[in-house]
Structures are given as structure tokens and as C-alpha cells.
Specification:
Layout: H1 3-16, H2 24-31, H3 33-51, H4 56-76, H5 81-92
Helix pairs in contact: 1-4, 3-4
Length: 96
């Protein structure tokens, strides 16, 4: 896991368990999974639009938003980026 992703995940976990409703993350998690997956869908569309003509910087920015919202979903379900990495490693294993 990269430091940036790990640090973000730690921050999201803290915000998940905080009562600070001024936190966008806390409000999003409190709103529930439907709202989180809606945001993931919106961000995925924005990545696609950026890739189709808004330039590399916009692709990077929108990709960061997508990863953020994906991490919010994982944290809300008590899953981790590490779980995703484990699955990616499993998929690399040679198949017999």
C-alpha cells in the first residue's frame, strides 16, 4: 500500500468513528451505502469524461476522487485497501 493511500485510510477510519458531522467523510458514511455507491458512480463517470478530452491532470484529479470514495466504501464495510491488494495478489498467482 502506498503511504498516501494508507494515510488516507487511517484518516477515514478516524472520521468514521468520530461524531464530527462537519466531516464530509462522517456525513457520507452516516448517509449510508446507497449514497456512497452513488458517489462512486458519479466519480467513475467523471474519470471517463476526463479521459475523453479533459487532459491528464483532470484524469489524475478525478481518479483521486474515485479512489477516495472507494476507500470510504471499504471503510464503511469494515474492509481495507489491504483486502483489495490481497485479492490482486491472488489474481497474479498462476492458475493450474
Amino acid at each position: 500500500m502506498t503511504n498516501a493511500v494508507h494515510e488516507l485510510e487511517v484518516t477515514l477510519l478516524r472520521r468514521k468513528h468520530s461524531l464530527a458531522q462537519e466531516s464530509y467523510t462522517a456525513r457520507l458514511i452516516a448517509a449510508g451505502e446507497d449514497e456512497i455507491v452513488k458517489k462512486i458512480g458519479e466519480e467513475a463517470v467523471e474519470v471517463i469524461l476526463a479521459a475523453k478530452g479533459q487532459g491528464d491532470q483532470r484524469v489524475i484529479e478525478e481518479s483521486a476522487d474515485l479512489v477516495y470514495h472507494l476507500l470510504v466504501l471499504l471503510v464503511s464495510r469494515d474492509l481495507s485497501w489491504s483486502d483489495v491488494e490481497t485479492e490482486l495478489e491472488r489474481r497474479k498467482a498462476p492458475r493450474t
